[in-house]
């Protein structure tokens, strides 16, 4: 349940205010962007009385109080209350309502409170003696996405925005699907498209025990069972529409327009069923203390990322299912439902074994949480997690397990197919450590296959070890099981699941960085990596990026990383005939996030950060490589010249991202394990709040306080207005507002770096 | 898309939000490069070849392809210009005998030329924002026109150069708004020589320029203005037609431009009045057949139009329609509008009259193609944010008109894409504007009307579901029948093959005719004391 579900008692006064504020927002363009903090994303708060008027307001105040009347507004004033038509401007429109200026006296609050027209939020604000607004970092409106979200919120599309973004993305995905796909018109083997289609064909026509054995030379099934089950569902659908699309053997290489549409639509449908809800929930849970605009923007950016679009809807694969399930697992972790999260992650693993790249991070997070909870609760959680995980795996492999299969050895069929150790260190040109260093040291000549496998394993282990250590150490530092009082509170609050008491997930902000670290180390160092696998490290990077402000470090690294990731797939996309889509979607994405690589190169000197200089250099190399490829044909001696150059440009960026992820892990862990033991302070605070509140507000408030705590603790950016309000309400004037953000800046992009500053600010003056 | 921003400063020539629209639209259009192409694509390629490889005297005589040149001379010159870079890029493009050439180079080239020439439309729409009374709203309208699903479907998938043509038309309208009526007239004359379908709009131009430019408000002839306009228009027609007149080819050219051998309806009935009457004829025929009522049944009409084939439409029950009838009705309706325009020659009145001229030609013209609906929708869009009455008319005409374009694309992927695009486009246009122009209904009858119109608009959802599911259901039905009887009997299914098209056409025609009635009523009865947004600019 989110805050948005909360009942809204003041709809009448709201619509009036909103009308007037819309009038004023026409005349004061500046006001909307300045009060970044006021009522953003919180339908509870309508009257923002205590907010200081921003300084740089340009328009004369007479224009605000008495705006020039317009015809339709005069006419429609009466109609709104009668017809219940929606207000002209959404409540989140940040123009400050003109009524709030005259309603500043406490007396007017009280009178308004009696006739039930007062919002819950205003009660909270009433008791707050003084609210100091710290202006959040300057938000630049440079990106198209941000402009677009702002415009649609102001123009009354707030409620339908998610649906519109979704539909627009479906349109974009299907138009991308008009183009060619992997292996189009290339008999006899075709490509990934044909592989997926072939699996539909064999899963519906062949008994389940033969799935991993049937004609392995022609795209034998080599993904875990969930892929097979999904193919089976798609196959049934295809068979019922047109049996020739999936006829056994005779349909190989079928390329009719309608079968292509079916295949494309199947990706879009599964994406809409799994990945889109996961992303939406992600933006709603992980950014729950941010404004709705930020949440919508994050959703938009995550939906439109070119790398995933190009691979899934251009090249043709179902990566969005695997990524969506992992993101869903993260959402469950954020809300404290660890068991569901574990199930979700196992399903992700069961869809594509590549999700193993995330396993160290997720495993260490879950173990760390058990450590955090102490021997009693943690131990119970550990047992539950273990049982759930094993049970989910059993369920996935059920057809190959004895009661359903003839022999226990049958389980080895899928296992051998899923982990192909017989193949080489790397296949095509891929921007990882092995392939890049292969330019100078010919690994395959130097060493034996077995030694290389072991070396890869050791390097990968070393690669993700830092994040595992950091997560473990953070949990050990934060462990609460030495204090019995706190544990009791935890138990009383954790309603149905004792292990789900989310007030103890302070290590959650570490999770995205740990995911980035472990998946990037797998990508760089592990065995048999494909260039499409860059999608896995890219996912946590983009999740971090989606909430970052454009002047932060995460933004710089995220923009660079995402562009280079798409670039690293260029040889593959070019081969698939997706060159135009590659360029156009990259252009659109950079426009959306307000990132201009060309401008970055121009302004390289004097640079404002090393990331800037590094990005400028990389972009210059990328652009010159593209130009070179357009003009010059590769020399006959080196036909692979351009792919190798591509690898040599991309690999350093990925190595830097890997190092950066380690740095961020350390920073965040330092931020959350700082000197203040805020966990217990918070618990105390919640106990007190439930006793001091009046009967009317008790239920609501305890909910608010709880949910605040949940998010504050889970996400670590409790600096948001809700916590501030609830704490000031519960103990008027007393200095208990120690619901201090462990790392409120984690998702604003500066991992831990301005933490000290915030902590100083958050202390009661 | 930051449309609420204050008006753009003088120094920057493109607002960031306008860049956004440009980038977004270009990305979408580029993604649509591999989409389905109609025969018009080959038509235009053939014209490139004709104009490039033949001397000008042969242009209107060449029959090496069935797609002969049937646009006015300016368009032929335009193709000639386009053929020069084409011959550099790939000489096979301009090879006259290289019929149905569809390599990646020609697709890339022709699709790119559409995008680039459409920038004329973009520039005209930008200029509309610059001098507008209410720039944020005009920006929404301009963006909606630039991203119009009609252009996306007809130009960027089906393939034509409408964006470029409508760019010239809007430029001409813009000149009329800015008071530069001479330029307006000249641009319209140029447009007529690009594509003669714009003759539908010519009466409104003629009356407007005559009354407001060539005559003073008191009725005196402004001889200087008159001569300037007349000479300019004549000069343009000479530039266009003189080469052919000197070669004595005018008759041949006219026979190419105006082929009167076609039927009343196009293959797929454009949703106009004749579609309604044809449908009524079909219904009456069924009724007559089933009840044995005594009608005079024209046996030639029994098998005529229900099959959706190109050819002459012969009615079975109703009296047949001759070209003369269609002209009479069109001109009668137009003259009502033009009389009003004569007495109120303001810009806004002109814009409405222009729309109504196109509208009546579309509804009652001979052999109207559904693509001509853009002639209504584009000028009507400029009126959308006027008052609620205009807006509602615009909504009905747009939904019906855009929906009627859907059958143009029959390939499976494209027909999904066009629907989704249109929904998103419509929502982004409807939600902001409807809140902007909302007016309180004046009486109960307005409320009833409002509900009925909303029901009609809601019906499109069910129509779309029906149209989309019909082929699947039909194939299932067919398969079941084959399984049951064992033999294939196609006569039953093919008779129903055109049912979705017919239903679409009739349902859209209802909306189009109703929109016309609304608009003409508003125009003739509009409260003259009301000064709308556009009226303030003289």
Description:
The complex is a heterodimer of chains A (765) and B (538). Chain A is mostly helical and 765 residues long. Among the domains of chain A are: 3-135, no CATH class; 675-741, no CATH class. In chain A, α17 crosses α21 (449-478), α23 (510-525) runs antiparallel to α24 (535-546) and α25 packs antiparallel against α30 (641-672). Chain A has helices at 11-27, 29-34, 61-65, 71-83, 99-102, 106-114, 120-127, 144-154, 161-177, 192-205, 225-241, 257-285, 292-303, 306-316, 319-334, 338-351, 359-396, 412-418, 433-437, 443-446, 449-478, 484-493, 510-525, 535-546, 553-568, 570-575, 579-593, 597-602, 610-631, 641-672, 678-692, 695-715, 721-730, 755-762. Helices cover 62% and strands 0% of the residues of chain A. Chain A is globular, with a radius of gyration of 28 Å. Chain A contains 34 helices and no strands. The longest helix of chain A has 38 residues, at 359-396. Chain B is mainly alpha-helical and 538 residues long. Chain B has two domains: 16-246, no CATH class; 383-536. Helices cover 67% and strands 0% of the residues of chain B. Chain B contains 22 helices and no strands. In chain B, α13 crosses α22 (499-525). The longest helix of chain B is centred in the C-terminal third of the chain and has 42 residues, at 444-485. The two termini of chain B are 29 Å apart. Mean pLDDT of chain B is 86; it is low at 1-11 and 305-311. Classes of the chains: A mainly alpha (765), B mainly alpha (538). Chain A: It is a multi-pass membrane protein. Chain A: InterPro entries: Glyco_trans_ALG6/ALG8. Chain A: Residues 18-35, 728-745 have a biased composition (Low complexity).
């Amino acid at each position: 349940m989110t805050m948005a579900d909360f009942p809204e008692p003041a709809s009448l006064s709201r619509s009036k205010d909103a009308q007037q504020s819309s009038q004023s927002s026409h005349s004061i363009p500046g006001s909307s962007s300045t009060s970044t903090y006021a009522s953003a994303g919180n339908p509870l708060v309508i009257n923002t009385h205590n907010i200081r008027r921003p300084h740089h307001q340009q328009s004369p105040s007479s224009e605000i109080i008495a705006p020039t009347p317009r015809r339709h507004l005069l006419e429609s004033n009466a109609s709104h209350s009668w017809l219940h038509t929606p207000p002209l401007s959404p409540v989140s429109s940040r123009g400050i309502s003109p009524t709030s200026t005259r309603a500043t006296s406490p007396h007017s609050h009280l009178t308004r409170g009696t006739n039930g027209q007062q919002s819950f939020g205003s009660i909270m604000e009433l008791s707050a003696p003084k609210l100091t607004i710290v202006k959040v970092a300057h938000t630049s409106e440079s990106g198209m996405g941000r402009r677009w979200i702002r415009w649609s919120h102001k123009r009354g599309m707030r409620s339908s925005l998610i649906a519109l973004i979704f539909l627009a993305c479906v349109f974009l995905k299907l138009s991308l699907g008009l183009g060619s796909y992997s292996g189009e018109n290339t008999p006899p083997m075709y490509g990934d498209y044909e592989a997926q289609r072939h699996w539909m064909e064999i899963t519906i026509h062949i008994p389940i025990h033969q799935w991993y054995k049937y004609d392995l030379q022609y795209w034998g099934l080599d993904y875990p069972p969930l892929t097979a089950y999904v193919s089976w569902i798609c196959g049934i659908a295809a068979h019922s529409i047109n049996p020739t699309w999936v006829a056994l053997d005779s349909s190989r290489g079928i390329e009719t327009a309608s079968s292509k549409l079916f295949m494309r639509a199947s990706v879009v449908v599964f994406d809409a069923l799994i990945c889109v809800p996961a992303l939406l929930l992600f933006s709603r849970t992980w950014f729950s203390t941010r404004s709705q605009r930020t949440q919508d923007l994050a959703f938009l950016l995550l939906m439109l990322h070119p790398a995933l679009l190009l691979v899934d809807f251009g090249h043709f694969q179902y990566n969005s299912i695997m990524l969506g399930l992992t993101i869903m697992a993260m959402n469950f972790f954020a809300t404290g439902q660890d068991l569901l999260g574990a199930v979700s992650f196992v399903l992700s693993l069961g869809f594509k074994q590549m999700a193993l790249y995330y396993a160290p991070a997720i495993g260490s997070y879950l173990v760390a949480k058990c450590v955090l909870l102490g021997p009693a609760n943690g131990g119970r959680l550990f047992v539950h997690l273990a049982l759930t995980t094993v049970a989910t795996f059993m369920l996935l492999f059920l057809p190959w397990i004895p009661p359903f299969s003839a022999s226990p050895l049958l389980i080895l069929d899928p296992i051998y197919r899923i982990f192909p150790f017989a193949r080489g260190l790397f296949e095509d040109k891929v921007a990882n450590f092995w392939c890049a260093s292969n330019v100078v040291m010919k690994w395959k000549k130097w060493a034996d296959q077995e030694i290389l496998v072991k070396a890869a394993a050791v390097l990968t282990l070393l690669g993700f070890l830092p994040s595992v250590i950091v997560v473990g150490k953070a949990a050990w530092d934060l462990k609460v099981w030495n204090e019995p009082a706190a544990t009791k509170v935890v138990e009383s609050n954790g309603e149905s699941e004792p292990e789900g008491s989310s007030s103890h997930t302070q290590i959650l902000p570490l999770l995205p960085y740990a995911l980035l670290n472990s998946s990037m180390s797998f990508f760089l160092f592990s065995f048999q990596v494909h260039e499409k696998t860059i999608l896995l490290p890219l996912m946590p990077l983009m999740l971090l990026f989606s909430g970052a402000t454009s002047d932060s470090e995460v933004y710089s690294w995220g923009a660079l990383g995402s562009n280079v990731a798409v670039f690293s797939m260029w040889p593959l996309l070019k081969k698939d005939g997706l060159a135009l889509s590659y360029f156009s979607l990259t252009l659109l994405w950079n426009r959306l996030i307000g990132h201009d690589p060309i401008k970055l190169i121009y302004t390289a000197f004097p640079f404002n950060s090393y990331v800037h200089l590094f990005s400028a250099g990389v972009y210059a190399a990328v652009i010159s490589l593209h130009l070179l490829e357009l003009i010059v044909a590769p020399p006959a001696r080196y036909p692979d010249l351009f792919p190798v150059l591509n690898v040599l440009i991309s690999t350093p960026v990925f190595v830097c991202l890997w190092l950066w992820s380690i740095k961020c892990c350390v920073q965040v862990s330092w931020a959350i394990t700082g000197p203040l033991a805020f966990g217990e302070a918070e618990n105390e605070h919640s106990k007190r709040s439930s006793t001091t509140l009046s009967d009317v507000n008790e239920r609501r408030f305890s909910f608010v306080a709880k949910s605040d705590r949940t998010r504050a603790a889970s996400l670590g950016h409790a600096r948001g207005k809700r916590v501030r309000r609830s704490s000031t309400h519960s103990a008027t004037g007393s200095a208990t507002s120690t619901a201090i953000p462990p790392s409120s800046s984690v998702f604003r992009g500066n991992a831990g770096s301005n933490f000290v500053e915030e902590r100083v600010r958050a202390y009661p003056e | 898309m930051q449309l609420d921003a204050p008006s753009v400063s003088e120094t920057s020539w493109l607002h960031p939000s306008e860049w956004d629209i440009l980038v977004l639209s270009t990305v979408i259009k580029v993604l649509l490069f591999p989409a389905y192409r109609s025969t018009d694509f080959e038509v235009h390629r053939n014209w490139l070849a004709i104009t490039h490889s033949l001397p000008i005297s042969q242009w209107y005589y060449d029959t090496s392809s069935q797609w002969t040149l049937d646009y006015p001379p300016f368009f032929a010159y335009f193709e000639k210009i386009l053929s020069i870079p084409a011959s550099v890029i790939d000489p096979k493009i301009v090879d006259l005998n290289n019929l149905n050439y569809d390599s990646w180079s020609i697709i890339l080239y022709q699709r790119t030329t559409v995008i680039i020439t459409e920038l004329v439309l973009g520039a005209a729409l930008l200029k509309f924002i610059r001098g507008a009374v209410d720039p944020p709203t005009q920006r929404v309208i301009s963006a909606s026109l630039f991203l119009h699903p009609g252009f996306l479907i007809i130009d960027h998938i089906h393939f034509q150069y409408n964006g470029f043509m409508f760019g010239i038309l809007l430029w001409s309208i813009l000149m009329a708004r800015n008071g530069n009526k001479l330029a307006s007239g000249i641009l319209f004359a140029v447009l007529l020589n690009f594509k003669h379908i714009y003759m539908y709009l010519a009466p409104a131009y003629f009356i407007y320029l005559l009354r407001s430019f060539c005559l003073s408000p008191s009725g005196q002839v402004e001889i200087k203005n008159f001569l300037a306009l007349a000479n300019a228009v004549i000069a343009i027609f000479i530039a266009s037609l003189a080469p052919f007149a000197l070669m004595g080819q005018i008759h041949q050219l006219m026979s190419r431009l105006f082929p009167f051998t076609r039927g009343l309806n196009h293959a797929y009935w454009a949703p106009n009045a004749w579609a309604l009457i044809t449908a009524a004829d079909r219904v009456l025929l069924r009724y007559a057949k089933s009840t044995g009522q005594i009608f005079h049944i024209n046996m030639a009409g029994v098998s005529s139009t229900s099959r959706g084939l190109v050819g002459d439409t012969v009615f079975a029950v109703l009296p047949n329609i001759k070209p003369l009838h269609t002209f009479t009705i069109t001109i009668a309706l137009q003259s009502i509008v033009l009389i009003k325009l004569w007495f109120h020659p303001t810009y806004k009145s002109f814009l409405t009259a222009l729309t109504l001229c196109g509208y009546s030609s579309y509804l009652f013209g001979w052999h109207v193609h559904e693509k001509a609906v853009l002639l209504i929708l584009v000028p009507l869009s400029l009126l959308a944010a006027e008052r609620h009455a205009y807006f509602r008319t615009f909504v009905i005409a747009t939904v019906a008109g855009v929906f009627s374009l859907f059958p143009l694309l029959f390939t499976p992927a494209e027909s999904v894409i066009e629907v989704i695009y249109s929904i998103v486009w419509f929502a982004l246009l409807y939600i902001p504007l409807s809140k902007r122009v909302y007016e309180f209904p004046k009486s109960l009858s307005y409320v009833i009307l409002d509900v009925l119109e909303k029901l009609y608009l809601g019906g499109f959802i069910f129509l779309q579901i029906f149209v989309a599911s019909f082929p699947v259901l039909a194939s299932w039905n067919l398969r079941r029948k084959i399984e049951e009887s064992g033999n294939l009997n196609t006569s039953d299914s093919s008779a129903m093959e055109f049912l979705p098209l017919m239903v679409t056409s009739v349902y859209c025609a209802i909306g189009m005719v109703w929109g016309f009635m609304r608009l003409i009523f508003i125009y003739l009865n509009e409260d003259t004391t009301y000064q709308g947004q556009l009226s303030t600019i003289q």
